[in-house]
Design brief:
This protein is of the alpha/beta class. It has 2 domains: 174 residues, HUPs (Rossmann fold, 3-Layer(aba) Sandwich), CATH 3.40.50; 89 residues, Pantoate-beta-alanine ligase, C-terminal domain (Pantoate--beta-alanine Ligase, Chain: A,domain 2, 2-Layer Sandwich), CATH 3.30.1300. It is 38% helix and 20% strand. The protein is built from 11 helices and 9 strands. It has a 6-stranded parallel sheet, with helices on both faces. The structure holds adenosine monophosphate. Adenosine monophosphate binds next to helix 2 and strand 5.
Length: 282
């Protein structure tokens, strides 16, 4: 695997490799890699001749400085895992490389309200930062396909919107959420859970799945209430539990269009904020 820290070196390589690169897949990450990230790389490798993974803990998407400081960083292990899955290229830039003062990298987006609900309510400015870094990385890497996880469903929807709005020449591909055996969605943040909170954490996915039963008896609003109550246990603090239309992320009123519905939730387990979601078309 090639490792580049400089934009110019990465671009030089991609130009030279050019004729050998039939298709370029790109998997942006913030590192502390786990099987979820690796599944996106494997997915990219099924169809692209080359896959670039980036590891960059993007400061502009953190609305709390403490969260940024505590974000796990495991570069040595990440490199080993990427080698193992056969990733061709790792891009591992410093902040100044992604946001050089002389390059205009600040962007303001209008996501038509997609960024104002759920995560957006609790993390103001977060999605602008996410879109800013994804746009910058797409400009640098110029891939044919961009791979992102269903795990961050709202993020996926917003990047889909950005690609549409800016007419970016890239195909966005969704990878399914990988989970621990007990149902907890894999996340770099899981590393920070205390043993007690780790034990409680599967309750999040269990509650998401309860919706499949509750929906037979209750309205979406009632299900939301039930779920918030079920998650309001010692050690947990649920922030939201929303049943929304997957296209506009607005609450659904009834159960008619199940194939369009997604349930999204964010829960504090101790001092670690976990998110998860479930598509109801299953
Ligand atoms: P992150 O490093 O958390 O920014 O995530 C990088 C990419 O991996 C994003 O597209 C995430 O949606 C995706 N991802 C994170 N967790 C998982 C998971 N458990 N399964 C599949 N993809 C994931």
């Amino acid at each position: 695997m090639y490792l580049f820290k400089k934009v110019s070196d990465l671009q030089h390589y991609l130009k030279l490799a050019g004729s050998g690169v039939q298709n370029l897949g790109f998997v942006p990450t913030m590192g502390a890699l786990h099987e979820g990230h690796l599944s996106l790389i494997r997915l990219s490798k099924t169809i692209n001749s080359h896959t670039v993974c980036s590891i960059f803990v993007n400061p502009t998407q953190f609305n709390e400085k403490g969260d940024l400081a505590l974000y796990p960083r495991t570069p040595g292990k990440d490199i080993e895992l990427l080698e193992k899955v056969g990733c061709e290229v790792l891009f591992l830039p410093e902040v100044e490389e992604v946001y050089p003062p002389e390059v205009q990298t600040k962007l303001e987006f209008d996501f038509k309200g997609l960024d104002k609900v759920m995560e957006g309510t609790f993390r103001p400015g977060h999605f602008n930062g996410v879109a800013q870094v994804v746009k910058r990385l797409l400009d640098i890497v110029q891939p044919d396909r961009l791979y992102m996880g269903q795990k961050d469903f709202q993020q996926f929807t917003i990047i889909e919107q950005m690609i549409r709005q800016l007419h970016l020449p890239v195909e966005l591909v969704m990878g399914e959420t990988l989970r621990e055996a007990d149902g907890l969605a894999l996340s770099s943040r899981n590393l920070r859970l205390s043993p007690e909170h780790r034990q409680l954490a599967p309750k999040i996915y269990e509650t998401l799945k309860e919706v499949l039963e509750w929906r037979k008896k209750y309205t979406p609003v009632e299900v939301q209430k039930n779920a918030m109550q079920a998650l309001d246990i010692p050690g947990f603090k649920p922030e939201y539990f929303e049943i929304v239309n997957r296209n506009n992320l607005l609450p659904i009123q009834g159960w008619e269009n199940l194939d369009q519905a997604v349930v999204c939730t964010a829960v504090w387990a101790g001092n670690v904020r976990l998110i998860d979601n479930l598509l109801l078309n299953q």
